[in-house]
Amino acid sequence: MAALEKIRKRAAILTIVIGAGLLAFILEEAVRASGAFTTDTLAAKVGSEKIEMQEFQNLSQARQQQQDADNKVDPAVTQQQILQEVIQEKLLEQECNDANITVTGNEVAELMVNNPPQSIQQLCQQNGIDPKSLFDLLKNPNADPNDQALAQVRAIYEQESQKMANQLLQAKLGMLLMGCLQANDIDIEQTLEGSTVYNATYAKVDYTTVDDKNIKITDAELQEAYNKYKNLFKIDEEARRVHYIKVNIDPSAQDKAAANSKINKIYADLQNQPGISGVRSNSDVVLDSVTTTQNDKQVFGAKTENKDETFKNLVAGGLNACEKKDPTGRDRNTFMYKVTSTFQSIDSIGLDMVLVQGPKARQDSVMALLDGGMEADSLAKDPNIQIQKSNPQQLIRAFQLPDSIRTKVNANANGNFFTWQANDQGAMIAKVAQSKPAITFYNIARAKFVDYPSEATVTQLQSELQKYLNKNKDIAAFEKNAKAAHYEIVEEIITPATTQLGAQSSQFGMMPGINESRKAVKWAFESKPGAISQIFTSDTEMLVVAVDEVYNDYTPFNDPSTKQKLTELVKSEKKGEYLMKQYKDKANDVAGYAALMKCDVDSASIAMGAPQQMLEGKVAGVLAGLGNKAQGKVQLIAGRNAIYAVQVNSIDPPRGKLEDKNIKNQMAMQYRQQHFPVQQMLGSILQNSRKVKNNLIKFS
After folding, report:
1. What pLDDT score does 31 carry?
2. What is the pLDDT of residue 322?
3. Which of 236, 323, 502, 565 has its CA 20 to 30 A from that of 49?
C-alpha cells in the first residue's frame, strides 16, 4: 500500500510513550489440532515469507492441552483461527521491520510489572506475590535450574511477555498510521457541519403496510438492479454454491431406554456407596471434581446462576447430597453430582510478605526476629529483604492454594508469621494480614454419562440415506425430491475459508455450524458442478453435498440468494414509490400527514455527525443536503423501510468556526477518529498490505 510505504519513510521520527490499556492482539489460549496434516509443505504464504506446515502443526499441538474438556471446538475452526492469527503476526512483524519499529525488553518488562495481563495477575494472587517480586524471582541468576515449578512459571511468563511485545508493536504502528492522517479544510468543514443538530417532528408509515400483491417485479427490473448494485455481490475469492442434506445421528427410542437403565444404576451407586467408590470402575462414567462454596458462580468451568436448582440443592443438602441434570435438546450428556466432603476454611486472605534472599541461616534469623515481635517494615533497609504489603483489592482465594499452604494459612490465621515457601536461595515468609470469615467449602464430584446411538441406529440412518442417493443420482433429482423423502435440503455459498457448513455470523460473532463438516467443504472445492458426494459421517451428523456452481468475481444474477436480495431491494423501492404517490401533497403539515398515515406525531433531534436512532440515515442525509432550507417546510421522504413526513422546526448551529485554531485541531482529530479508526482497523489494513495465500483448504 502506498500509505504504508510513506509511513516506512517517516518511521525514524516516531517517538511514542505507551502506557496501560493497550489492545490485545493475537494468539488466544485454548486450541487443539486435528493431526490431519502429514505433508510438510506450506500452510500459507505472507508476502515472500512462508509458513511451513510443520511450524503451524507445532503451534496447534502446543495449545491442544489448554482446551476445556467440556467445550471442545471443531478442529477445523480452531486451525483456521490459529493460521489467521499467525498470518496477522507475520504481517505485523514484516510491517514493523520495514518501518524500523522495535520493542525493547525494558518496555515489555515495565508493562509486565506495572500492567500485567490477567493470567499473570492470577498467578501472583495464587502464590501471594506481587508482579515486581515475581519478575525478580524469574530473573534471579542464582535460581535453581532444576526447579521444575519455577521453569513452568517462567515458560508461562515468557509466553505472556511475547504477547505483550506484539501488543506494543501493534500500538506503535497504529500510532504511526494515525499521525500520517491529516484532514484538509474541506474535511474539517464537513465534520463541523456534522455537529449541526436538526430538531424535527415527523410521521411515518412502514413499507410493511403495503401488501406484496400490489408490487409487481419483472426480471428486467431485477437485472437493472443487479447492474446498479453489482458491487454488493462482489467476492474476493473463489466461491461455490452447494446444496446439502444433513441427517442428525441421535439415539433411537430403544437406545434411550437402554441408557436410562444404566443412568438409574449409576445414580443409585453414587447415592448408596461411600464417595465415588460405586462408580469409579464403571467404564461408562467420566469422573471429575470441583471445590466450591454456596456463593460461588463458577462451577465446572461454567457460570451457574442462582436459579440453578442443581447446585442450590447440593449445598443445601450438605455431605453426600446427590443431584442429577438431564440433557436438553440434542445434548447427550447426563450429569450426576455428589458432595463427597466439606471443610471449613478462610475464604479469602491478604498477606504481608517478607522475601528473604540468601541461605537458610539468614532465613532462620529473619524468622526469629519476626517471631520476637519486630515489625516487618524495620527489615526493609536490608538489601537482601523485600517487604510486600497486602492489597485489599487483590485477596487470594484460600481454597485455590495447595493443600500444604492452605493448612499453614488456617493454622496461622491469628497473624503469626510462617514460611510460605523456601529453598537454599531464599524464602517467602508470610502473615495473614486480612481475611474473610471461615466458610464451608464443598468438594463436589461429577459423573458424566454420554448416551451414544447404537450401531444399529447408525447403520439404519446411513442405509436410508444411501437408498435416497441411489435413487436420486443427478443433482436436479437430489435437490427436488429431498422434501418428499423427509430430508431438509439447505443451500449455501462457501469459500475456501469456510470451516463449517451452516455457520452463521451474528452480533456475537460466528455461530457454530455442523461439526466436522470441513471435509465436505474440501470435497466441494475438489469437485465439478453437478457432482454429488458420498456420505460424510461424524459422531453427530451425516452429510451429503452437491455442487451447483462455481463463482469467481461476482455472485451471478441467476444465483437464488442474489435474486432474493435484489427482490427485497426493488420491492422496498417500489413500495416507497407506491406510498409517495398515495400521500404526496395530501397534507400541509406533519399533523395532517399523521392523520392520513394513522400514526402519532413523533419528534427527534438529528445530529448529522452521529448515528441516527429515530430516523433512517437516508432521511437525515436528505435534510442535511437541504441545510437551512429544510427549516419550516414539510418534506415527504422515502427511506429504506418507510416514508417520512418530516418538518425541521429549528436548527442548532455548528459548535465552532473553522477560523478558530482549537476548533480546527479538535475537528481534525475527530475526523481521523470517525473516518479512519486505525487501531480498530489495523488488522484489516495489514491484511491488505501484502499478498496473503491461505492454503489450509488443501489439508483439511
Report:
1. 29
2. 93
3. 236
**Residue 363 in 3-state DSSP?**
helix
Q: How far apart are CA 68 and CA 31, in angstroms?
A: 9
In this predicted structure, what is the pLDDT of residue 305? 64
**Sheet strands (E) in 142-207:** 197-206
What pTM, to 2 d.p., does this model score?
0.67
Q: Are the beta carbons of 627 and 608 closer than 8 angstroms?
A: no
Interval 483-526: pLDDT, tens = 999 999 999 999 888 989 998 765 555 677 898 999 999 999 99
Burial class of 488 by CB neighbour count within 10 A (0 to 12, 13 to 18, 19+) = exposed
Other C-beta atoms closer than 10 Å to the C-beta of 468 total: 18
Closest CA to 358 of 261, 275, 428: 428
List the one residue out of 592, 580, 646, 574 whose CA is nearest residue 616: 646
Q: Could you tell me how many residues make up the chain?
A: 700
Residues with pLDDT less than 70, the chain: 1-40, 60-72, 126-128, 178-195, 303-307, 393, 505-510, 607-618, 620-621, 624-629, 654-681, 698-700
pLDDT for residue 266: 97
Dist. CA 364–CA 366, nearest whole Å: 5
CA 130 to chain centre: 29
pLDDT at 30: 27
DSSP codes joined into one string, 285-354: -EEEEEEE-SS--EETTEE--TT-HHHHHHHHH-TT-EEEE---TT--EEEEEEEEEEEEEE-EEEEEEE
Distance of CA 600 to the CA centre of its chain: 42
Cβ-contact 243, 548 below 8 angstroms: yes
**Angle subtended at Cα 501 by Cα 495 and Cα 503, rounded to the nearest 5 degrees:** 95
Whole-angstrom Cα distance, residue 675 to residue 84?
Answer: 26
Torsion over CA: 4, 236, 507, 511 (sign): negative
Looking at the chain, the whole-number percentage of residues with pLDDT higher than 70 is 79
Q: What pLDDT was estimated at residue 357?
A: 87
> How many degrees, rounded to 5, is the angle at CA 509 between CA 506 and CA 512?
85
> What's the CA gap between 242 and 549, in Å, rounded?
7
Which residue is it, cell 455459498?
A: 493
- Taking each helix axis from N to C terminus, what angle separates 590-597 and 560-583, rounded to the nearest 10 degrees? 120
Q: Are 554 and 233 in contact (CB under 8 A)?
A: yes
d(CA 501, CA 518) in angstroms, rounded, equals 7
